[in-house]
Amino acid sequence: MNEGTATRPLVDRLLAAHGWLVYLFFYAPIVVLTVFSFNDNSRVGVWTRPSLRWYGEMFRNDDIMRAIRNTLIVAAVSTVVSVVLGTAAAISMERFRFRGQRAMDGLLYLPIIIPDVTMAVMMLLFFVQAFDLLEGFTGIRLNLGLGTISLAHIAFNISYVAVVVRARLAGMDPHLTEAAADLYATPWQTFRRVTLPLIMPGVAGGALLALTLSLDDVVVTSFVTGPGSTTLPVYVFGLVRREVSPLINAVSTAMLLASILLVGVSLGFQRRSGARQGPSDEDEGDANDATTPMVGHLGRVGADAGGM
Amino acid sequence: MLALTLAACNGSSADTTLAAGEGTAPTEENGDGGSGAAPECSVDEVDGPLNFYNWSDYIDPDLITAFEEQYDVDVVETFYDSNETMIAQIQAGVVYDLIVPSDYMVAILIEEGMIAPLNKDAIPNIENVSEQFQGLYYDETFSYSVPYQWGTTGLGVNLSVLGTDFPRSWALVFDPELTASYPSGVSLLNDPRETIGAALIYLGYSLNETSEDALQEAADLIRASNVTTFDSDQYPDNLVNGEVPVSHGYSGNFFTTFAETENPDNWEYVIPEEGATLWVDNLAIPTAADHPCTAHTFINFLLDAENGAQLSEWTLYATPNAAAEELLDPEIREDPAIYPDDETFERLETIQDQGDAEILYTDYFNMARGG
Q1: How many domains does one find in chain B?
Q2: pTM
Q3: In CATH, what number is assigned to the domain containing residue B113?
Q4: Does the distance separating the beta carbons of B19 and A121 come in below 8 Å?
């Protein structure tokens, strides 16, 4: 009659195997791409001998270096701004009650649901009309460029940040802020010393998500771009149309390395603040792998949005 | 939920075309509209930095540097990945001085009044353009555009399988008996216009034919043939890796791939005798350009014999510049698969936009694929 306990380990092992398979599915293409970025052959997928040839070509290619610079500027600006605005939006939705909140609540998630291309055309029309109006009133002519790309990225990133931060806020005990108020903390002190540290993993997760979305957006960016402001994904997309060159492997690997570095830094930061706060961060334990938090946070977005 | 959203995003990016054209139409009045006069420019005049909107990786960076030094003027490069993205930007009123639209897109841009007539007095090198390119439907006399680079769609052949004595014809991929004799079958492009078009040419129609009887015939022809894959990305690799003996695809991609194999002589690119697709990318100046004179000077610079040769040696596509062609390596210049004689050239056809009938090609292509 110990059948139940006998099958248990088998189920566990199957689940574990399944987990590994999922990871293999995620990361095998990345490993292949990375390995082939060190290939000397000019054809993708034919191995000759290891070399740094394509990395050299990447650094010598001014167009690519300029595109990388543009991408990093847009990603940095849009991440910082959307994290601040998205966090504020999440707190206002979760902690306060005001007229029209329900409508706002629904509208906040619209940018996540709207197809990219619709968003892109809307943005383009909006910027063009707004700039025309501005020129009519002030005579100042603004042009599309890095500014409009950043604004467009901020616009869609706010929603993602808000979703992630809200999930964190919802799981936070509201009595903690009341306790802080009882101890004569001002609202700002409460936010700074109690709320923000507790929701920090959510904020960091939102920031990573925003950064990722900004780094690889093609559709919206290619519409609201202006002279001289081509970003890396747009450039690479154009490259693939003609020929899949190993140069793309090198560029992608460099971007990947940058993202992993970033995730690592933010993880270290989180873990330190987590240690200070004690046991509040129950999901810190599984964060040993530098890539886990991304997947974790994405999962949380799915869970939260699905629950609406 | 997230998965759904992502799927929606991916799916929609392919539809950029339609949304771009229609969504931005209301801002059309931003342009100067209509067929304005050609700008007043003299030879070698520059009137400010050049905002050059081009495909990714489509010009030798050394040519840009040379132009900047020779005329002491900046070139600001911006890149696009499809004609449709480009026209969306132009329609929205983003100001560029020079663009590189493909053949059918030139027709649309002229119709919409979005590109300006060229001042040929400022482009003396225009006489270098090969006469072969005069009379193309979208701009017969280079009034609005000059050809930049061009190529064809034909067949890549593995000579170690087919030998040297094989029909230089679309029969290689469409004859049911011939294709059945290759155990691994043949590869066709995963592109309704190109593949249905090739079948139409083999059947003796124009590749722009829209009658449903002809399209049905073309679809039946494709279905009867021994086709292994419909592929638009990996076809040159599939050919040189020996997976298929004959492969339908774009000239430039075959040449690049052949050159990178250990034994380039084992492969041949063939323009079938019945005719084939011709594509031409062109230089054009938007009506709203801020620095049209610099743009004219840049066009003239690229049409120079030596610069034109340097450009094509770098892109590996064919040059429409007859003077530049003279300076190319004789092995390239005399290759009839790259620079076909006038008789073959006459049989090449460009794909023209068929408006509402475009969807028919997709329908019959799906039918041919057995979908």
Answers
A1: 2
A2: 0.77
A3: 3.40.190.10
A4: yes
